Amino acid sequence: MDSYVLVLAASSGKNLELAHRFCETFASKGIGSEVVDLTTLHWPVYIPELDGSDEHEPETSELSDLILNSKALVVCAPEYNGIMPPALNNTIAWLSVQSDDFRRLFNNRTVLLATHSGGGGAHCLMAMRHQFSFLGSNVIGRTLTLNKTKSFSQETMDDLVERVLQ
Ligand SMILES: Cc1cc2nc3c(=O)[nH]c(=O)nc-3n(C[C@H](O)[C@H](O)[C@H](O)COP(=O)(O)O)c2cc1C
To answer: Domain 4-165 falls in which CATH fold?
Structure first.
């Protein structure tokens, strides 16, 4: 696929809705995209004891291939206790141990961050920025924040999507 964006949703409520809105917006610009709802993966919590275990290690290749074939990632995640939810952190942990290079899937990849959180979501955005930057991603400066008082703006989403495509 020429230009294809992978949209990760780290929870299955408002953030999954937001992820689908991103896909609709990419589609309106002729760009293919796909949502992966990380809550449906049901990977066990990463602990070193499960790493390499035939019985317990999750099948990560499908998601790895989707990431490797993508032009960019959009990550929609709610704030949980001041950081990102375990569904996201756990997914990244498992993906990072699948090769000798823990940055392999994320290095030099464009990443756009978005959140629908109970409050401002700023801590979650900061935590995700820190993590993806550490993994070598090029995290876009502008982010999307929604909550009970800050409602969706298509104008903002259009602007963000254009930045992903640049
Ligand atoms: C375990 C837990 C911790 C949370 N911690 C925070 C928090 O630190 N800051 C915040 O703004 N909202 C917090 N929330 C609220 C969620 O961010 C909010 O409900 C979000 O919209 C859920 O996304 P969803 O609808 O996609 O499931 C927390 C919710 C849960 C379940």
So the answer is: Rossmann fold (3.40.50)
